[in-house]
Amino acid sequence: TMVEASPYASEKPIDLSNTCLKKGALDGEVAVVTGSTSNVGMGFARALAWAGANVVVCGRNEARGQAIAGLINRESGEGKALFVRTDVTRDEDVAELANQAFSAFGKVDILINNAMDLGINGTVLDSPVSDLDRSYAISAHGSMLTIKAFVPAMVERGHGTVTYSSTQFNYWPPMLGGSMYTAGKAAATSLTMSLANEVAGTGVNVFCFCPAGVGAFNPDSLKDSDFSTEGFAMPGFPGLIPADASGAAMVYSILNGAKLHGSGIIVSDALVAMGYPFPKPETLRKVHPPRLEDGYSITMAFCNMGKGFGD
Q1: Rounded Cα gap, residues 5 and 130, in angstroms
Q2: For residue 199, which of 247, 166, 136, 150 has the smallest C-alpha distance?
């Protein structure tokens, strides 16, 4: 069943009709989402398809990937999703990913580099150098392979979006993501921001998106709370943002990609910007979170850089 294939997936169809998003907003678009066989990437893929995009699901787990592509096809229409088994560290796998994506849909308009292994999570002093090599291979090497495979055609057509699932640039307890994990992520974030400068003015929007705090969620846990989206990304609130909400924030960010080009956004900031009514609409407040004012914000500098959705 779908639950067995992925502990984060649900048989319940995704429904973003209570947001500012409109079905069909991404009609005609084609998206590739790496690392989309669970949790964050799965939420991105499902939300993109709900909004009308055709989606290429990719990851290393064949069973999960096929199950998630099947779920998307059931809830958003047959033929909306294709699964391609991909290890983004392997040149030949990314070449085959591109081959199948272009063969199935003719083009790729949206590239979300999301693949990573959270198990690569050790400290500098206690980790073997091979952990850093693996972190870099998935995040930075993998991102460059997919960028090389898909972005030139976007530039040629003058249309596209490239985004990277970023994180804090250094490990800062008690946040999730140890030293080896954040080191590889930092390299890929730098790569993505350099690409933004390289393609400025071409019609291709490039930004970083930080899905901080996304995970399994029990609505009953906040039943009597006045908790609002402004606190989602704060330490001490793990797993409060469901994957479909993160996916909605990603769709909103893509639709507003020109505003985010060369910048970054944290998922909670995007939810506030779009007025997402979660978990209790009456507690949602329009705020501009503080930037680079304390230890927590400084670790999130890659996500807070530039104007974001602020003034």
Answers
A1: 29
A2: 150
User: Token match 């063969």: residue?
Assistant: 103
Tell me 112's DSSP state.
E
CA angle 227, 229, 233 (to 5 degrees): 100
65 and 88 in contact (C-beta within 8 Å)? no
Q: What is the pLDDT of residue 225?
A: 40
Q: Per residue, what are the HEC states of 44-104?
A: HHHHHHHCCCEEEEEECCHHHHHHHHHHHHHHHCCCCEEEEECCCCCHHHHHHHHHHHHHH
pLDDT in tens, 212-230: 777 654 444 444 444 343 4
Structure tokens at 66: 């096929």
- Would you state the pLDDT for residue 87? 97
Whether the Cβ atoms of residue 44 and residue 209 lie closer than 8 Å to each other: no
Answer left, alpha or beta for residue 78, where phi above 0 means left and psi between -120 and 50 means alpha: beta
Angular region, 202: left φ>0, alpha ψ -120 to 50, beta rest: alpha
> Which pLDDT tens digit goes with each residue over 134-169?
999 999 999 999 999 999 999 999 999 999 998 877
Q: Which of 6-20, 78-92, 154-168, 252-266 has the lowest mean pLDDT?
A: 6-20
pTM of the model as a whole: 0.84
Residue 242: strand, helix, or coil: coil
- Which residues lie below 8 Å from residue 215, measured CB to CB, with a gap of 6+? 8, 39, 238, 239, 240, 241, 242, 243
CA end-to-end distance (rounded Å), the chain: 46
Q: Give the DSSP H or E segment for 31.
A: strand 30-34
Helices (H) and strands (E) in the chain, counts: 12, 7
**Gap between the Cα atoms of 193 and 185, Å rounded:** 12
pLDDT tens per residue, range 32-71: 999 999 889 999 999 999 999 999 999 999 999 999 999 9
